[in-house]
Amino acid sequence: MSSTPPLVAQAPQPRFGPLARLTGALFSPGETFADIGRTPSWLAALLLLTITGLAVNIVLAQRVNWYEVTRSQIEKNKFAAAQFERMTDEQREQAYQSAAGRGKIWRYIRGAVGSLLLIVIMGGVYLGAFKLAGAGGALNFKTARAIVSHAYLPLGLREVIGIPILLLKDPSAIDPENFVASNVAALLPGDAPLWQIALGASVDIFGIWCLVLLVIGFSAFNPKKIPLGKAAGVVLGVFIFFVLLGTGIAWIFS
Fold it and tell me: Is 72 helix (H, G, I), strand (E, B) or coil?
């Protein structure tokens, strides 16, 4: 007697390679994110975002006048400003110099690990948000992480655009948090309170692009359980939560 070996289910194969996914996520997101949902991967997107993030933060660390940036930030923070008023001129100067040095070092750290932390944290946040909304279904952390990493590629494009701007711009005129002037905060006066800057920074061209890709990406993973309307509701809900949180914290310190 002969026996027929059992059929082994073939794992789905990606239709697009890593490089095609990077460009496809930006310019043909529907088809690309459907492929990412079937065979999730994130290393190529993480590598690209890390390289661009590290590059722009190295330039920022070298080009920005951190002494003046730190001084401006302290003056806008009512708690820090009150503390500095009690210092002598010598103590205040030493504190400014120390804070400026920490701000410069922080840029190197942010460039090295910022993209990794952002993707991992927000992948978990969106996974939890969709599960709470009853739209998660088969969505897992691996898939959510892959969708988030590719949806955040516009941030890498912003950093690529920002590098020549930073190299050509007068160091005294560089805003390290808005070096491309791509959001509403760039239109505010220099003495605007922290909460207005935080709120204005949330309305960003590249950030809005990321939100659109997140909606398309999560919906493309499972269009039946996560239609575009539901995906938009969850993504915008998470966005509004973080905007209110950031603006509220900035208002406390303004």
Answer: helix
pLDDT tens digits along 98-151: 999 999 999 999 999 999 999 999 999 999 999 998 887 789 999 999 999 999
Q: CA 91, 97, 103: angle at the middle one, nearest 5?
A: 135
Query: What is the Cα–Cα distance from 154 to 158, expressed in whole angstroms?
Result: 6
6 pLDDT more than 60: no
Length of the chain: 254
d(CA 8, CA 237): 42
Give percent of the chain above pLDDT 90.
73
Confidence band of 184 (pLDDT split at 50, 70, 90):
very high
Q: How far apart are CA 155 and CA 74, in angstroms?
A: 27
pLDDT of residue 5: 55
Show the tokens assigned to 76: 């806008």
- C-alpha to C-alpha distances, 83 to 63, 75, 193, nearest whole angstrom: 28, 10, 18
DSSP state for residue 254 in the 8-state scheme = -
Helices (H), the chain: 18-27, 29-38, 43-63, 66-76, 78-85, 89-132, 141-151, 153-168, 194-202, 205-221, 228-253
Longest CA–CA separation in the chain, Å: 96
Token pair, residue 150, equals 């590719």
Residues with Cβ within 8 Å of residue 57, at least 6 apart in sequence:
107, 108, 110, 111, 114
Among 211, 214, 242, which residue's Cα sits nearest to residue 148?
214
